[in-house]
Design goal:
The protein is mainly α and about 240 residues long. It has twelve helices and no strands. It comes from Clostridium kluyveri (strain ATCC 8527 / DSM 555 / NBRC 12016 / NCIMB 10680 / K1).
């Protein structure tokens, strides 16, 4: 088990650096919005939704209705449906750990679970579980530090919420460099620009998510086929 913990910790160091920083930003903003820091910690334990937690701060303070919050949450996190589908085979033998693996499948955890390979002689199920668990612990620790700092230190928090945007930019760049086809990324960019022009900065999330979902659903075969051809071409070149 010590080998599993060590291997999982080493694999999660990049996420740790990001989650501690972003978790601190979330804790600060949540505390500054007028809520007790215990609520920020509770949200990071029970909700653990990354960007949606930042959005929730504005939703909670604006008095928006429950149905609108539910729809916003659905469309912001609908990508997790596809995350789960891609891990059906990987999680089916994890027993009681399966439910936590589903709950803890954030963007960064998903990326690590896709790419991280357990060292020889290490149980892969426990390795994956430790990766997911460590990532949430980093987020919770960051939230605690940020909440406590916000309650003890008085300073201007303007711009701190950009930390989550910065983290997504890093993920976007990494995915752009990793995947052969850039079609999904370009679809996302075009959908966002179109939604800003038509619906404005404050109303772009839901329409852009719908456009992305519909476009990827309609053209997923062409996108998958193009990616397969490029991968096959790379293999032939190497041969």
């Amino acid at each position: 088990m010590k080998k599993v913990i060590k291997a999982a910790f080493l694999a999660t160091i990049p996420v740790m650096l990001g989650y501690l920083s972003v978790g601190i930003a979330f804790g600060l903003l949540f505390e500054k919005s007028g809520y007790n820091f215990w609520w920020a910690i509770f949200m990071s334990i029970a909700v653990y939704a990354g960007s949606m937690q930042f959005i929730a701060i504005n939703l909670l303070t604006s008095g928006i209705g429950f149905i609108q919050i539910a729809l916003m949450t659905l469309f912001v996190n609908i990508r997790h449906v596809f995350y789960g589908l891609s891990f059906i085979d990987k999680f089916k033998d994890m027993g009681k750990k399966k439910m936590y693996m589903i709950f803890s499948l954030t963007d960064e955890t998903y990326s690590l679970l896709c790419s991280a390979k357990p060292p020889e002689g290490i149980n892969s199920n426990w390795f994956l579980f430790c990766i997911a668990f460590f990532n949430q612990i980093y987020w919770i620790i960051g939230t605690i530090v940020g909440s406590l700092a916000g309650s003890l230190i008085k300073f201007n928090t303007k711009g701190i919420d950009f930390a989550m945007t910065a983290l997504f930019v890093v993920i976007f760049i990494e995915q752009w460099r990793t995947y052969k086809t850039h079609a999904p990324a370009l679809i996302g960019i075009c959908a966002a620009i179109f939604s800003i022009l038509i619906f404005g900065n404050n109303n772009l999330i839901l329409p852009s998510m719908l456009i992305i979902l519909l476009t990827l659903t309609i053209f997923h075969k062409q996108i998958d086929g193009k990616n397969f051809e490029q991968n096959e071409g790379d293999l032939n070149n190497e041969y």
